[in-house]
Design brief:
mainly alpha, de novo design (two linked rop proteins), rod-shaped
Length: 223
C-alpha cells in the first residue's frame, strides 16, 4: 500500500509539472504576440505621424483634390484613435488604401513630385511602410505559433482549461490588393507579396534553431 501511494504521488507530481510547463509556455507565447503587436502598432503610428506634413504639402500644390486629402486625414485619425488590435488593423488598411489613391492623383502634378519637401516625405513614408511590412509578417508568424500551440493536443486541453483564445492575423484585404501600383520607388505597391521581404531577411529555420526574438532581430537576420 505505501508503495502504491508513492507511485501515485510521483505520477501526480509529474502530471502537475507538465501542466505547469504547458501553461507557462502558452503564457510566454501569448506575451510574444502582444509584444509583436505593440511593435507593429508603433510602426503604424509612426507612419500616421507623417500624414499631416504630407497633406499640407499636397494641399499647397493640389488643393482642389479635397476629397482625397480628406479621406487620408480621416483614415489617419482612425489609426491614431484605434483602441483594439482589430480597430488598428482595419484603420491601417484603410490608410494604406487612401494613400495609394492619393499617390495616383499626385502623378498628375510633376511640380509637386519635384518638390524637395515632398520627396523627403516620400522617403520617410517608404521607410515607415517597409517597417510596417516587416513587423506585420513578424506579428503574423508569432500569432501562427501561438494559435498552433493552443490547437494541438495536449496543450489544447490546457488552453481550454485556462481560457487561452486564438489571435487574429493581420491580413491584407482583397480591396487593398487590387489598388493599382504607383511607382514611388516601390513605396506603395499593393501587389506586394508580404512574405518576400521576410524570406529575404529572416533567418532560415531548422530543427533546434531559435525563433527571432524581436523585429530588430528579424530585420537584421539575427536568431
Amino acid at each position: 500500500m505505501p508503495q502504491l501511494f508513492w507511485i501515485l504521488l510521483v505520477i501526480i507530481l509529474v502530471l502537475a509539472a507538465i501542466l505547469v510547463m504547458m501553461y507557462n509556455g502558452l503564457v510566454s507565447l501569448r506575451n510574444r504576440v502582444k509584444n509583436a503587436y505593440a511593435q507593429m502598432d508603433v510602426q503604424m503610428k509612426n507612419r500616421a505621424d507623417l500624414i499631416p506634413g504630407l497633406v499640407e504639402t499636397v494641399k499647397g500644390a493640389a488643393g482642389h483634390e479635397r476629397g482625397a486629402l480628406e479621406a487620408v486625414i480621416k483614415a489617419r485619425s482612425a489609426v491614431m484613435n484605434a483602441q483594439t488590435p482589430e480597430q488598428s488593423m482595419a484603420a491601417n488598411e484603410q490608410l494604406t488604401s487612401t494613400l495609394n489613391r492619393l499617390m495616383l492623383l499626385v502623378e498628375s502634378y510633376p511640380d509637386l513630385k519635384a518638390n524637395a519637401n515632398f520627396q523627403q516625405l516620400m522617403s520617410e513614408l517608404k521607410s515607415a511602410e517597409e517597417k510596417i511590412r516587416y513587423s506585420r509578417q513578424f506579428y503574423n508568424d508569432t500569432v501562427m505559433k501561438y494559435n498552433n500551440k493552443i490547437q494541438v493536443f495536449p496543450s489544447n486541453l490546457v488552453a481550454g482549461l485556462f481560457g487561452f483564445h486564438a489571435e487574429k492575423f493581420f491580413e491584407i484585404t482583397e480591396s487593398e490588393r487590387q489598388v493599382p501600383k504607383v511607382d514611388f520607388s516601390g513605396m506603395y505597391d499593393a501587389n506586394y507579396n508580404k512574405n518576400d521581404a521576410y524570406r529575404q531577411k529572416a533567418p532560415q529555420s531548422s530543427d533546434g534553431a531559435k525563433d527571432p526574438q524581436s523585429l530588430d532581430d528579424l530585420r537584421a537576420g539575427r536568431p
